[in-house]
Structures are given as C-alpha cells and as structure tokens.
Amino acid sequence: MFDEVFDEMAELHENVFTYWVAGDEWMRLLREEQAHLVEGWGGRTETLMEDGNPVDYVILEEGCLTYATGFAIVDESDMKEEVYDLLNFIYERENAVSLSLGHNYPVQLEGPPEEITERFDYVESPDDVVWFNWEEILPIQDEIEGRFDQIKSL
C-alpha cells in the first residue's frame, strides 16, 4: 500500500500548483480564487464562509486525518496549580462553548451542546477520523519525506 499511495500522489501531482506551508496560505488561495480545491481545516473554512466566501467543507467517506491537542505540565513547574485552574476553566461547559464559537473548532466535551456539534470538524467518535500510528511512521519518516520531496520536484 505504501508504494501505491506514492504512485497515486505522483500521478495526481500534475494537478497541484503549490503545497501550502502555513494555514493562512490555503485560505488566501481560495479567497483570491487561485485555487478551487484545497486540503484545510474546518474552523478556518467556517471563517471563510463567515466572511462571505463561497466555500464548502467535506470530510470524505474514507475519512480524514485528525490532530490532537495535548497539554503537558513540567514536573518541576512552580505554576502547576495555575495550569490546573486554567484547564478546569477551559473545560467548564460555558467556557468550552465560548471557545468553540470563537475559533470555530470543537472543544471535546462529554455530551456536547449543539454549538459544538455544529462545528465542521466535530465527529461523533474518534473512530470517524484517521489517526497516525506513530510507531509505524517514525521509523520510516525520512523515507516518507524523501519520497514526498521527489514527488514535489516533478
């Protein structure tokens, strides 16, 4: 499957005029009508729509990659209590909804309200999206990046 994916990427590369490297770049490409199809994030797509841009957001039947936000607290930190207070504040329902509405990304809660489930990136189950298996990727990351660089140079 590994070779099949790269073969398909090489085949489709002729349709690619750029690979964006910053989240605002694909938004600009759509806004300026330089691109008509991009890979992007739901929250930023919602922002484009709110600004009156004629765009839509689709999660393919095959799924899409997900990302996860994690929090880490340095063991020696003298600010642990403040960090715990911040996390507790963020995950209070009212604040989580406010954050979701502010940045258009769902804050994960049990039994989320409609304001969160309406976000484009919201899914019912973590199984609805594709997760990286880092144990398989990290050992071959250099090979993946090298093959991708070869395709980009075509």
What would your notes on this structure say?
The protein has helices spanning 2-12, 23-31, 42-50, 80-90, 93-103, 114-117, 134-137, 141-152. It has 154 residues and is mainly α. Helix content is 46%, strand content 0%. It is built from eight helices and no strands. It is globular and about 50 Å long. The mean pLDDT is 92. The protein folds into two domains: 1-66 and 134-154, no CATH class; 67-128, no CATH class. This is ABC transporter substrate-binding protein. It holds the Pfam family SBP_bac_8.
Short description:
It contains eight helices and no strands. The protein is mainly alpha-helical and 154 residues long. The protein folds into two domains: 87 residues, no CATH class; 62 residues, no CATH class.
SSE order and pairing:
Layout: H1 2-12, H2 23-31, H3 42-50, H4 80-90, H5 93-103, H6 114-117, H7 134-137, H8 141-152
How many domains, in number, for the residues? 2
Q: How many β-strand stretches?
A: 0
Distance between the termini: 21 Å
Radius of gyration: 19 Å
Q: Give the overall pLDDT as a whole number.
A: 92
Helix content range: 40-55%
Largest sheet: none
Which stretches are low in confidence, meaning pLDDT under 50 for 5 or more residues running?
Answer: none
Order of helices and strands: HHHHHHHH
Total number of helices: 8
Percent strand: under 5%
Helix vs. strand class = mainly alpha
Keyphrases for this structure?
single chain, 154 residues, mainly alpha, 8 helices, 46% helix, globular
